[in-house]
């Protein structure tokens, strides 16, 4: 019995160990499966927390200008003379004549294609035109009297390497139709490109080719002047090196794109003017200036003829720190205008030649006066004077100028002058010491006395000798004799006598009489002695 119980206990304890083993084994397997699932769900995250290019195929396809199933964007048809084949390019070869054949062949990793019944052919490094001739020769030797056509149907992708003063150096996918400008990440949306920094060079970028050649890339000249040669196509294995920008010059004044630019070794002034888009139409072609440092804090001026530099007749090197100025002539194409308002056929603004065009010239361009124009009230106002003359109302008589032909009244206009031609009113204003002050209907060829009678005559307080006529057309204040015939819109002013004038006269007479009497008494007394 005791032996049976011991056996049962050993048996139970043995089963417990198996269960524990199975439990832990299952737990380990479960953890391994979960880890694999998590790794699959997050393939972009490496142990260091940075993104790995090998795990970003879909995103990096965008570097070549395509997404899965979308064709590359090209500048135009591929140039058979310029396009260089490499691994990944796909060719389609059509043969017709006695036999009809079609081959779709991809250049392999060794740069070769294999043509059935003709053998292998190395195409990497050959232009498309050279490849066509080589294929035609190879296939033609096997199939006589056959006609052969070779077409490039798919472009390859390859690696290029970016280093230097960029945010994200490394290796990147490119295509044979991409240029340096595209790979350097000018789009803020694409965070997977090696974007340039604030301190990055734009004009001294180098492309180092696999064959040992080096090309300089000037993205500023490409962007501003459209020089495509400064933005070359990429090739397999290119290394793009972006240095730090360290030397600068500035251009200001009458140029298309003023600003501060990076300096290129050996750059001349004509190159700079080309870089900034040339000069504007308002540039002074006779005189430009370069301000140059000759010491740590001293500068000198170098003057140049802008036209001669552009034509290449005279040129010189630009140095670090140079300040280039292209001037604009004073008042270049500045439009000077006067305003004509009121009773003219075409009121509005009119351009003039300052200190040359006259009032009659502008009135003629405005179509002349309307039948309702009142020349006696016409005036010229001058808010400001460029010649330093008086501002305000210009003294002239439009009746004499336009009716009598007196050219002495034809004033020379200045910018900003305002010409006002009122409408005929047909009234004369009588104010002051008259019985019925106010407006009196205008009657041509009448004098002041006529209008005084129409206003009821003078009052007893009227100062007859001080009656004045205010002439609207000239702004003058005239006496009755000077005014002659009253004009429409004139104002007749009748002032009052000065209070106490008669008593003052009496006092003056008495004072003079007293002085005379005193003198008489003195003289008479002297004679009596």
Question: Can you characterise this structure?
Answer:
The strands form 6 sheets. Strands 7-6-10-8-9 form a 5-stranded mixed beta sheet, with no helix packed on it. Mean pLDDT is 81; it is low at 5-14 and 36-72. The protein contains 12 helices and 25 strands. Among the domains are: 75-154, 2-Layer Sandwich (wza like fold); 248-326, Outer membrane lipoprotein wza domain like (Outer membrane lipoprotein wza fold like); 337-421, Outer membrane lipoprotein wza domain like (Outer membrane lipoprotein wza fold like), CATH 3.10.560; 427-494. The protein is α+β, with helices and mostly antiparallel strands.
Instruction: Count the beta strands.
Output: 25
Shape: elongated
What's the architecture of the domain at 337-421, going by CATH? Roll
**CATH level-3 fold name of the domain at 337-421:** Outer membrane lipoprotein wza fold like
Percentage of β-strand residues? 15-25%
Quaternary state of the chains: single chain
Structural class by secondary-structure content: alpha+beta
- The CATH class assignment of the domain at 337-421 is Alpha Beta
Give the low-pLDDT segments.
5-14, 36-72
**What is the rounded distance between the termini?**
197 Å
Can you give the mean pLDDT?
81
> What portion of residues is helical?
25-40%
Number of discrete helical segments: 12
Provide the spatial order of strands within the biggest beta sheet: 7-6-10-8-9
Largest sheet: 5 strands, mixed
The CATH superfamily of the domain at 337-421 is known as Outer membrane lipoprotein wza domain like
Radius of gyration: 50 Å
């Amino acid at each position: 019995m005791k032996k049976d119980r011991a056996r049962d206990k050993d048996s139970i304890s043995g089963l417990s160990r198996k269960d524990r083993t199975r439990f832990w084994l299952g737990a380990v397997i479960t953890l391994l499966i979960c880890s694999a699932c998590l790794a699959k769900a997050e393939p972009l995250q490496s142990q260091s927390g940075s993104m790995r290019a090998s795990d970003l195929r879909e995103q990096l396809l965008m570097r070549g200008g395509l997404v899965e199933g979308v064709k590359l964007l090209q500048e135009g048809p591929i140039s058979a003379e310029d396009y260089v084949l490499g691994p990944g390019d796909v060719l389609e070869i059509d043969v017709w004549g006695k036999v009809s054949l079609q081959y779709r062949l991809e250049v392999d990793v060794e740069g070769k294609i294999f043509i059935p019944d003709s053998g292998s052919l190395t195409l990497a490094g050959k232009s498309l035109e050279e490849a066509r001739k080589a294929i035609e020769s190879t296939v033609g030797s096997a199939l006589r009297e056959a006609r052969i056509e070779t077409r490039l149907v798919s472009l390859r992708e390859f690696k290029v390497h970016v280093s230097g003063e960029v945010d994200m150096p490394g290796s990147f996918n490119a295509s044979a139709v991409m240029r340096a400008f595209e790979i350097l990440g000018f789009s803020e949306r694409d965070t997977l490109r090696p974007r340039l920094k604030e301190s990055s060079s734009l004009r001294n970028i180098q492309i180092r080719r696999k064959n040992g050649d080096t090309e300089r890339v000037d993205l500023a000249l490409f962007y501003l002047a459209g020089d495509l040669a400064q933005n070359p196509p990429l090739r397999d294995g290119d290394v793009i090196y972006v240095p730090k920008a360290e030397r600068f010059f500035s251009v200001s004044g009458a140029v298309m794109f003023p600003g501060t630019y990076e300096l290129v070794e050996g750059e001349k002034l004509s190159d700079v003017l080309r870089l900034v888009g040339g000069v504007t139409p308002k540039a002074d072609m006779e005189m430009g200036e370069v301000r140059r440092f000759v010491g740590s804090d001293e500068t000198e001026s170098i003057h140049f003829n802008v036209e001669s530099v552009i034509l290449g007749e005279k040129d010189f090197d630009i140095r670090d720190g140079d300040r280039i100025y292209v001037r604009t002539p004073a008042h270049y194409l500045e439009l000077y205008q006067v305003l004509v308002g009121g009773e003219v056929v075409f009121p509005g603004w009119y351009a003039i030649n300052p200190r040359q065009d006259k009032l009659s010239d502008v009135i003629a361009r405005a179509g002349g006066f309307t039948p309702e124009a009142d020349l006696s009230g016409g005036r010229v106002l001058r808010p400001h004077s460029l010649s330093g003359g008086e501002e305000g109302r210009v003294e002239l008589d439009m009746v004499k100028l336009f009716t009598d032909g007196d050219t002495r009244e034809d004033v020379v206009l200045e910018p900003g002058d305002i010409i006002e031609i009122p409408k005929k009113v047909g009234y004369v204003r009588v104010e002051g010491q008259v019985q019925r002050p106010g407006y009196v209907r205008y009657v041509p060829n009448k004098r002041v006395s006529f209008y005084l009678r129409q206003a009821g005559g003078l009052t007893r307080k009227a100062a007859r000798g001080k009656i004045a006529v205010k002439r609207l057309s000239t702004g003058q204040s005239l006496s009755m004799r000077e005014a002659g015939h009253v004009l429409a819109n004139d104002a007749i002013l009748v002032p009052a006598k000065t209070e106490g004038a008669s008593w003052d006269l009496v006092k003056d007479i008495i004072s003079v009489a007293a002085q005379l009497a005193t003198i008489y008494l003195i003289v008479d007394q002297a004679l009596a002695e």
